[in-house]
Amino acid sequence: MNATPPLPGNTxxxxxxxxxxxxxxxxxxxxPIGIVSIVYASQVDGKRAAGDISGARESSAKAKFxxxxxxxxxxxxxxxYLLFILLVGGMGVLxxxxxxx
Length: 101
Known about the structure:
Elements: H1 19-28, H2 31-49, H3 53-99
């Protein structure tokens, strides 16, 4: 657990909301899954302020999971595209070599 020490007079545990990651994954990765991450991230601070520490931890974990899933799913089309480029480029090189004979 990565809790920071409480400030003087503040005994509420710090729970990261992962809102930045949720927004970035929504904008640059997978929109529908990123929105789910934003919803969970927006619940963290409210639950923590209301004293629902376990609910805030759960929402934080879900926000992180959905943001990472969104980022991971963005890698699949990127890797397929790079594979396609390598295959097409390789075929062009091989085709050029066969025409030289």
